[in-house]
Design a protein that fits this description.
The complex is a heterodimer of chains A (about 110) and B (about 425). With about 110 residues, chain A is of the alpha+beta class. Chain A contains two helices and six strands; from the N terminus they run βαββββαβ. The chains are: A alpha+beta (about 110), B mainly alpha (about 425). The interface between A and B is medium-sized, with 8 and 18 residues.
Chain lengths: ~110, ~425
């Protein structure tokens, strides 16, 4: 099993959710986060004076998937969250040791 | 029959004065909202405290001695209740006698209750003082500010008011009226005066921590609540109809009623012109539509037209307002370059544009002269700025005017008032 952590533009959340639902992903966890990448934030003007926005608002989507699902999920997110502009975000794929459904005690792929 | 009409005219003009005074009083709410929107959240309670306290101090000090210095009469307004008459009937007889004696009857100057005159004048003092609070926001000690308010509203403002609307010679030397100085509702007398006092305070006080970098960088310190700032601007815009409209001083005959309507119309037109001009200039300069500049632009339009809302055409008033709105953007940027830190733009809106308003009068009003306007503006500025600088300096020596660096960082709400304006944001 894998954990896909996608950092995406907040306005793309609905599109990503729909794309994932379409390929049979049953659950996800969403967090509002802030951060910066290679652009190191950006600057805004207020009354003619500049101020830096060091951390930009992003949305973090976490999805636990089976090995078989991984490629389609990564592809679906890549497609849905892409605007071809800077700041589209990143995805991190990591190994998932164990998953437990708390209500029934099921584990592994069955708990996904 | 004619006597009854005089009764009615007195009643109407007194009532008009009172309603306009109440509108101007509401400007205190406008300043409070504008300023609380333009400062950071941690300084909100304190700026609101300053605003309610300065309004009340203005009312008390103008009652104690301000009105007497500006227009004569006794301190504590003693004798104002019946204008010196012994009874209500005697007052009526005196007023009717005044009406009957003069040849122009209904169309002459307004005759109204002196108490209504005080009420209308006192809210102008509060307006002038409100201008100061925004410019020194976020770093000045509350009680130092209130001490200054006592001197400003009880003495500094009434002195220059006595030379202008009061008609007295400046220290017995020269008369501004004779030189052709015209300031209809107070672009200079109220607005520039307030800004001059604010400028003196800001110079002694210094900029907010973090506003200017060591290499001349200018850092933005963003306002906490732009909806409040917008509401405040609209409240001021509305109150200004009383400010300028009431300054016609009379409603009760055809030509004056028409003049009042023109003043309302021009005041509104100038604000609209100022807002659009500032919005457009800011868009061109910064690449984005800066709401705070647009709000300052509307106020600049209002300040610009205040010196002469009675003589321009509607188009002329719009243009005067628009020039004011454009000037204010450049003035705000310019003051920042000089490291004069004014969180709400009060010195630019009321000072720079107040001066422009005075200088614009001779273009539409034959009674005003450029020499008179310049001498008048200089007189007001030198007096208010100089006297304020001395008073601020004395207060600085006695008790200090600036909060400590740590208090400034924590916010003056906690340091001065011990309460936050939006506690649920931080406590939950």
């Amino acid at each position: 099993m894998k954990l896909v952590t996608a950092i995406i533009k907040p306005f793309k959340l609905d599109v990503v959710r729909e794309a994932l639902s379409d390929i049979g992903v049953h659950g996800m966890t969403v967090t509002e986060v802030k951060g910066f990448g290679r652009q190191k934030g950006h600057s805004e003007l207020y009354r003619g004076a500049e101020y830096g926005v060091d951390f930009l608002p992003k949305t973090k989507v976490e999805i636990a998937v089976s090995e078989a699902q991984l490629d389609t999920v990564v592809e679906a997110i890549s497609k849905a969250a892409n605007t071809s502009k800077i700041g589209d975000g990143k995805m991190f794929v990591s190994k998932l040791e164990q998953v437990v459904r708390i209500r029934t005690g099921e584990t592994g792929d069955q708990a996904l | 029959m004619e006597e009854n009409l005089y009764h009615l005219q007195y009643a109407m003009d007194t009532f008009y004065f009172l309603v306009c005074g109440a509108l101007v009083m509401w400007m205190a709410a406008g300043f409070s909202m504008l300023e609380s929107g333009m400062v950071r959240a941690k300084n909100t309670t304190e700026i609101l405290t300053k605003n309610v306290a300065l309004y009340s101090i203005s009312c008390i000090m103008y009652m104690v001695c301000g009105y007497a210095i500006m227009y004569g009469g006794d301190i504590f307004l003693s004798g104002i209740s019946l204008d010196g008459a012994e009874s209500g009937d005697a007052l009526a007889a005196t007023v009717l006698g005044e009406f009957a004696e003069r040849e122009d009857g209904f169309t002459g100057g307004a005759i109204y209750s002196n108490a209504s005159d005080f009420f209308f004048q006192v809210v102008f003092v509060a307006t002038a003082m409100s201008i100061v609070s925004g410019a020194v926001a976020e770093r000045m000690k509350l009680w130092a500010f209130l001490l200054f308010a006592v001197v400003m509203t009880g003495f500094i403002y009434p002195m220059e008011g006595s030379w202008t609307w009061g008609g007295n010679a400046v220290f017995g030397l020269y008369s501004l009226g004779d030189l052709g100085f015209v300031d209809f509702a107070g672009s200079g007398i109220v607005h520039m005066a307030g800004a001059s006092a604010a400028l003196a305070g800001v110079i002694l006080l210094g900029a907010r921590k973090g506003k200017y970098g060591p290499n001349g960088e200018i850092h933005a310190i963003t306002g906490a609540n732009l909806p409040l700032a917008t509401l405040g601007t609209f409240i001021l815009w509305m109150g200004w109809f009383g400010f300028n409209g009431g300054s016609v001083l009379k409603l009760g005959d055809i030509s004056n009623a028409n003049a009042v309507a023109m003043v309302f119309l021009n005041t509104n037109a100038a604000a609209a012109g100022g807002l659009v001009a500032a919005l457009a200039v800011a868009r061109v300069l910064f690449g984005k539509a800066d709401l705070t500049m647009a709000l300052n632009g509307a106020l600049a339009g209002l300040v610009a037209i205040t010196a002469g809302p009675d003589t321009p055409s509607a188009l002329g008033a719009t243009i005067i307002g628009a020039i004011g709105g454009a000037i204010v953007v450049f003035s705000i940027i310019g003051l920042d370059k000089l490291k004069i830190d004014d969180p709400v733009g009060a010195i630019s809106v009321h000072g720079t544009v107040g001066l422009f308003g005075l200088l614009a009068v001779p273009f539409t009003n034959g009674d005003a002269s450029f020499v008179g306007q310049i001498v008048g503006a200089l007189t007001i500025f030198v007096w208010v700025f100089g006297a304020s600088l001395i008073v601020w300096s004395v207060i600085k020596l006695i008790m200090g005017i600036r909060v400590s660096e740590e208090e400034e960082y924590e916010g003056v709400d906690l340091a001065e008032c011990g309460m936050e304006a939006y506690p649920e944001f931080t406590r939950k």
